[in-house]
Amino acid sequence: MASIKPLRDFISDMTVLAGAQMDEAAFLEQARPLMQQLLAKDEWLPPAFAEPNEKSYRQYLLHCDPLERFSLVSFVWGPGQTTPIHDHTVWGMIGVLRGSEVSQRYEWGDGALHETGGVDVLEAGAIDMVSPSIGDIHKVSNGLKARPSVSLHLYGGNIGAINRHSFDIDGASRTFRSGYSSAIVPNIWLP
Ligand code: FE
Q1: 41 has which bridge partners?
Q2: What is the model's pTM?
Q3: C-alpha of residue 184 to centroid of ligand 1, in Å
Q4: Are strands 71-77 and 100-109 parallel, antiparallel or unpaired?
Q5: How far is the CA of 183 from the centre of ligand 1 (A)?
Q6: Ligand 1 geometric centre to CA of 84 (Å)
Q7: How far is the CA of 147 from the centre of ligand 1 (A)?
Q8: How far is the CA of 54 from the centre of ligand 1 (A)?
Q9: Which pLDDT tens digit goes with each residue over 21-72?
Q10: Distance, CA of 164 to CA of 177 (rounded, Å)
Q11: 5 CA → ligand 1 middle, Å
Q12: pLDDT one-digit tens code per residue, 102-119
């Protein structure tokens, strides 16, 4: 089995960074190379946390900071799977580990949501950001029609427990908590 050390190092570095005093933009600038490093190899992710499900995309918690300052989730997309339009209410950093992820952003205007920009296609290694300060509403999908994709989503809180919203394009919203797809997290202390 491949070493889980890249994940352990990422969590360790993120824990140090989370204790530093800086604004969100500076924080994300420092977190980005850590994510880049985590994406550089993919074999550290235990197969149980890369398992697609035919009914819906999976959100496997890989780690939540004990002070809930950040959490890391492996998002596993089956072929053709997609999220609703949704927000996060905290910053989020999305890194593609395997395959590809497609993102469409939205903005409010006249009480409804409007697509902003084109569809972003993120290939393995690419990083995208969301946040209430830079645009927090999007819809993401597997970029591959016939194969699973895996992306790593890092959030500024315990994302599975945060009240946030899904939207219809006409602006109707519902509050939801995503929870997590698995009752277990990886053992980062394996060699
Ligand atoms: Fe999202």
Answers
A1: none
A2: 0.97
A3: 22
A4: unpaired
A5: 21
A6: 9
A7: 20
A8: 20
A9: 999 999 999 999 999 999 999 999 999 999 999 999 999 999 999 999 999 9
A10: 6
A11: 27
A12: 999 999 999 999 999 999
